Amino acid sequence: MQPVLEVKAYGYCYPGAEAPALEGVSLAVGLGECVCLNGPSGSGKTTLLLAVKGLLKGGRVSGSIQIAGSGPGSSRGMVFQNAETQILCTTVEDEAAFGPENQGRAPEDIQRSVKESLELVGLSGFETRNVEHLSAGEKHRLAVASVLSMSPRFLLLDEPTAQLDPSGKERLVRILKRLKNKGHTLLIADHDLAPFCELADRFILMERGRLRQTLNEMPPIVPVPPPGQGPGDRFSALGAGPLLIHVEDLHLAGADGHPLFRGLDLKIRQGALVHILGENGAGKSTLLRSIAGLTQADSGTIHISGIKKLRPEALLGKVGFMFQNPERQLFEETVYAEVGFSVKRLGLPPHVVHERVLEALALCEADHLRARSPLTLSFGEQHRVAMASAIAPQPAVLLLDEPFAGLDFGQRGRILKILSRLRKERHTTILIASHEYLPDGGWADQTLRLKDGKIGAL
């Protein structure tokens, strides 16, 4: 098979880092081949893709990376783990046209490429939609379309399924199969290999910056159990706990004018562990934002502990919110300062602030990152820091929007154990919104489905 990519004894160490992110990596990928990279968070998958794309600047480099010359396979397109970081324009059509316009292509050629790429990812009819009004899954599909519109022959995809619901994953795999059949080369890094079981030619397992094993078949996966009875250590989550969150007859229109909530009702008692399940675009993020006082409904009421006028300042210290895209809430110069920001606003003594910051960082397995800049972290690391920031003020209510993106399956399970511990020790009420079942089907006291503007038990 004609090689498109040859990596020879490649190593890379980020500026200021003591240990290399990649070490002694050797890899060849053939024309039209699909190779999947797998490994725990921090194993070097994203760094390898960035190196192949030629985006690593500074740092210490050893070895070499060669891409086939000017023929098929030489053009590389990359879809990043956090799709929002590569979306630059205001509308869907402008975003899809940005790449080919910068390639200097003719207007009619650009128009054709944009039309084809949007059709391929299922975004036809979205051309004039503001990108800010897209769901996370729709933004990810737009990022794919924006790369495809530039007609690359070699595609690099970093965690392409992380923000997609099951139907979105199926659609993505169909797209990739079509591209592979047309001769495109695919290098995919993902924690979830199941969608690619019939697409990939090889699976490469990474660990601590090295390639540890190459398999011709997908490695065994741990099945995700459906919702069960909930954890056995519940204390009063559904029965005796006082009513904490009461959403009644909520109505809200989406950015396109169509109803997003149609008389939504929700009651959650103190100490409950609740999982809200829904497809991309169902309104999960909007519901959490409404509870946090960040989005105002058209009609209906939301009460939290008797508070009727929900404003962020009124809920300070009472409600912690982790955004779906952690970059939207990270702004301090260091991780330590980031996690301590909300705690300081409570007016607590410095030694208490310090204790809470260290405790939250340790709980979220992010203590080693405390001196780093949040914006230099990986997507998964940013999620852990954002969660620590939400936990540190010790709120009564914790709202987590897609908290597992960028985390390997082991970390996801440990996060759920941390959250169960918060409920047990502090009686924290926790709502998780996600597009797929939790890694522990028995974690939640209630699993609710948000669909067609209403919410109900599965």
Write up this protein:
With 458 residues, the protein is of the alpha/beta class. Helix content is 28%, strand content 26%. The chain has 10 helices and 18 strands. The protein has helices spanning 45-53, 92-102, 107-120, 136-148, 166-181, 284-291, 335-345, 350-363, 379-391, 409-426, and strands at 3-13, 22-30, 34-38, 60-67, 76-79, 154-158, 185-189, 202-207, 210-215, 243-253, 259-269, 273-277, 299-304, 319-322, 397-401, 429-434, 446-451, 454-457.
Average pLDDT score: 87
* Low-confidence blocks of residues: 70-74, 231-238
Strand order of the largest sheet: 5-6-7-3-8-9
> Fraction of residues in helices?
25-40%
- Tell how many strands the DSSP assignment holds: 18
Please report the number of helical segments. Answer: 10
The percentage of residues in β strands lies in: 25-35%
- The string of secondary-structure elements, in order, is EEEHEEHHHEHEEEEEEHEEHHHEHEEE
Terminal Cα span:
49 Å
Largest sheet properties: 6 strands, mixed
Class by SSE composition: alpha/beta
Provide the gyration radius in Å: 23 Å
Shape: globular
Short summary of the structure?
The protein contains 10 helices and 18 strands.
